[in-house]
Every structure is written in structure tokens, then in C-alpha cells.
Design brief:
The chain contains nine helices and twelve strands. It is of the alpha/beta class. It has a domain of 163 residues: Rossmann fold (3-Layer(aba) Sandwich), CATH 3.40.50. The strands form three sheets. The chain has a six-stranded mixed beta sheet, sandwiched between helices. A four-stranded antiparallel beta sheet has the order 2-1-4-5, covered by helices on one side. A two-stranded antiparallel sheet has the order 6-7. It is globular, with a radius of gyration of 19 Å. The structure holds adenosine-5'-triphosphate. Keywords: ATP-binding, Nucleotide-binding, Transport.
Amino acid sequence: MSVTEKAAIQTTAAPTTGARGAGIKLAGVEQRYGDPKSSVLALTDVNLEIGKGEFLVLLGPSGCGKTTLMRIIAGLLKSTSGKVEIDGQPLWNGNRRNDKVMEELGVVFQDANMFPWLTIEDNIALPLKLRGVSKTERRKRASELCELVGIKGFEKRWPRELSGGMRQRAAIARALSCKPQILLMDEPFGALDAMTREQMNLELQRIWMESGCTVVLVTHSIREAVFLADRVLLLSPRPGRMDTLKTIEIARPRSAYDQSTPEFQAYELELRKRLDTFA
Ligand SMILES: Nc1ncnc2c1ncn2[C@@H]1O[C@H](COP(=O)(O)OP(=O)(O)OP(=O)(O)O)[C@@H](O)[C@H]1O
């Protein structure tokens, strides 16, 4: 990337619709895997501020470091260099995770990871149970969350009795149970069929707008990225670097029909062309 291209990447936080979530600051983040002699540089030079309540989408070719970056933001991996701050608080103090900061984070993976021996309600409320919240309060919160994510009435069911999309809704509810300021989602809809995925995108937009969380989402879908994002961060092939940071200026709430507008398609085309240069 040229110096001018680099300068064109606006790394400060974008203005956003909500302001209740927490901001995220990444400074000089780099990740190497393996021992020092034969290590693989997976990610380098990530400098970015994600605004409170912003919806940021990570996009990029396979193996460019999207999951690595997500795991670093989630505190599941301590980057080999650089710093991560959540609302000005460091995520790590030396080799110790900052538990107070971790409480602000909710995480959703591609697999809903429901415990099969717990009902949907108990799965959703598990993080609350681990924090000592009373059973009455847990039931109340699980019921509110089921309503929020559109699975009201399924509280007493087992995970196997729900469709893949419904289980993913339950996983989002569980991630939101402790009222996190930040929701981190790694390809949450990757395993769903196209129609369910489109429906989930609409639902996620609504949940995000209602909750005011900051969201960081990883996807392989350019369409999903443009539909959901305030900004799309396109990472280059390994070692992943910030290649393009694109603000999507399509009004909210966005509808499925917006995807056929010239404005939407222009964003898609721009990102697709850039991704094609990596092939
Ligand atoms: N635990 C690990 N040990 C060694 N190398 C790893 C490890 N995890 C990831 N990598 C390497 O780091 C690079 C980035 O991996 P990562 O999973 O973050 O990419 P990704 O963009 O999420 O990929 P995909 O889109 O295929 O899911 C890859 O080259 C991968 O092989």
C-alpha cells in the first residue's frame, strides 16, 4: 500500500447512530503465531478506533487474520505487539486480562454452542448464573431477551428443537445477557441458508439499534458487510493489514430492498474490485 493510500484510511472513529456502547482502540496491533524462529506473521500494523455504538464489519480473503483480530479484541488472545483499549481501559495489564473490561464484551461464534442438556432459557441465562444472579431475575432477563431476538415462547425448549437460525438468535441473546457494551460476532450467520441469513441480518440491525451496543462482525459476504456496516474494514491477504476502511452512508434502518439500489451496488462493486486485486 502506498503512503497516500495509507493516509486515505481514516482511522479515527466514525460518527454513529447509537452512543451507548463502548469505544475500542487498537494501537500497533500485531500477531505472530509459532516460536520466534519460524513464526508466521498473521496480522500487522492495525491502528483503529471503533466508535461507541458503531457497527464495524471485518472483511477480507481467507486467512487474512479476521478471526485473529476478533480474538484479540475479545481478549481470547493477547497480541504479540500493540495495545487494545476498551473505553480507555487496557484489555491487558501485563499478562493479566482485565476482568472489568471483559465484562463489557459479549461474543457470538459461527456455531451457536448451546449446551444440549440445558433449556434455551438456561443457556441464555448461564452467564448470569455464573455471576450469581437469582433464578427469578434470570428467568425475567431470559424472557426479555427471547422477545428481543424473536424466539419468545421457546424458553423451555431444548436446543435440538430449534432451527439453526433460532439457535443463533439464542446465542445472540446469551451474548447480550449481561448487557455488554460490545458485541463481537465471528461469522455468526455463515452456516445458515441464504434466506434465513437475510432475515438474521435484518434482525441483527434491529437488535443493534435497540441495544445501542458497539458491534464488530466478521463475514465473508460483501453484501452482508455493506448491509450491516457503518464502516467496513477490508484486510489485505496475510499478513493482514488495514487495506481499506469504507464508510457506508446508507440511511438506517436499511431494508432488504435497499440491496437493489445503485448506491448499495456501488459499495458492493467497489469492495469486490478491491478484493479481486488480492486474488
Ligand atoms: N493458532 C494458530 N497457530 C498458528 N497459525 C495460526 C493460528 N491461528 C491462525 N493462524 C494463521 O494465521 C493466519 C490468519 O488466520 P485467521 O483464522 O485469523 O484468518 P481468517 O481471515 O479468519 O481466515 P478465514 O476467513 O479462512 O476464516 C492464517 O494464516 C492461519 O493459518
